[in-house]
Amino acid sequence: MSDEPNKQQPVEPPKRGEAAWRAHRNEIATRNERASRLARARREEGYARLLARRREAELRERAELAKRPL
Question: What's the whole-model pTM score?
Answer without folding.
Answer: 0.59
